[in-house]
């Protein structure tokens, strides 16, 4: 396979992967539903080889499960599965924050973070916060987390953060849109923003242990969001993927 053909195959795999992932997370494919290669080809308009690779990648992400008789099945998740994934993300982001603080970050490196922090401040001043503002928050929150993680200067750590954030419901903004319909929404965003400000301050002052602790605590806000979202399933239109969560964690 020449370079152009290889690039085209990779592009088609990503296209199929994104399309199928979106169908799962939008609720178009339900927990327990079987997906064959031929069905995935019809859905995505991509040929069988890249579709097969896309399905394997989605299995690796944890969204699909291979069936012994052939094909894949959309997985259901227990609340405990998701809690473990969130805890793992918090551990890795905490490590990244500690490394950033211990290795030092220049004023120039911190400037984009502070700008992003200011942009989020403007959103969270709204009370109540509109659905459009929550959508803008999702993008800004993802950018802030990406900038924070980059400060660690460690390619291996960043790769692992990307891997864990791709796990179902583990990303920093996984439950933000579902949270937007809850009465506690504004309070939770204010707490999250306080965490953002605290970790940037800790990194700037080279306080590694504090930076790590703040990021681990920050990830646990997602646990609160999850439980609130599961308690109030009347707003599933904002996060249809919650239908994949079938069982509460053991107490």
TrEMBL record:
Protein name according to UniProt: GntR family transcriptional regulator
Molecular function in Gene Ontology: DNA binding; DNA-binding transcription factor activity
A UniProt-annotated Pfam family: FCD
Stored SUPFAM superfamilies: GntR ligand-binding domain-like, Winged helix' DNA-binding domain
PANTHER family given in the database record: TRANSCRIPTIONAL REGULATOR, GNTR FAMILY (PTHR43537), TRANSCRIPTIONAL REGULATORY PROTEIN (PTHR43537:SF49)
UniProt domain HTH gntR-type: residue ranges: 10-77
Keywords: DNA-binding, Transcription, Transcription regulation
Superkingdom of origin: Bacteria
Alphabetized Gene3D superfamilies for the sequence: GntR ligand-binding domain-like, Winged helix-like DNA-binding domain superfamily/Winged helix DNA-binding domain
Xref: SMART domains: FCD, HTH_GNTR
């Amino acid at each position: 396979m020449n370079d152009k053909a290889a690039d085209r195959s990779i592009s088609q795999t990503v296209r199929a992967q994104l399309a199928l992932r979106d169908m799962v997370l939008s609720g178009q494919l339900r927990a327990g539903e079987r997906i064959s290669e031929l069905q995935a080809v019809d859905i995505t308009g991509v040929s069988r080889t890249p579709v097969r690779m896309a399905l394997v990648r989605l299995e690796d992400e944890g969204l699909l499960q291979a069936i012994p008789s052939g094909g894949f099945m959309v997985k259901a998740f227990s609340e405990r599965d998701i809690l473990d994934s969130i805890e793992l993300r918090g551990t890795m982001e905490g490590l990244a924050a500690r490394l950033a603080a211990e290795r030092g970050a220049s004023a120039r490196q911190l400037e984009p973070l502070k700008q992003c922090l200011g942009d989020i401040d403007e959103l969270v001043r709204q009370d109540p916060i509109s659905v459009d503002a929550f959508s803008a928050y999702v993008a800004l929150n993802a950018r802030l987390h990406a900038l924070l993680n980059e400060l660690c200067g460690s390619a291996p750590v960043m790769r692992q953060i990307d891997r864990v954030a791709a796990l179902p419901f583990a990303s920093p903004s996984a439950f933000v849109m579902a949270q937007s319909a809850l009465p506690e929404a504004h309070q939770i965003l204010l707490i999250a923003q306080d965490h953002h400000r605290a970790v940037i301050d800790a990194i700037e002052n080279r306080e590694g242990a504090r930076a790590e602790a703040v990021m681990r605590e920050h990830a646990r806000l997602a646990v609160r969001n999850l439980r609130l979202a599961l308690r109030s399933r009347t707003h599933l239109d904002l996060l249809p993927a919650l239908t994949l969560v079938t069982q509460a964690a053991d107490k």
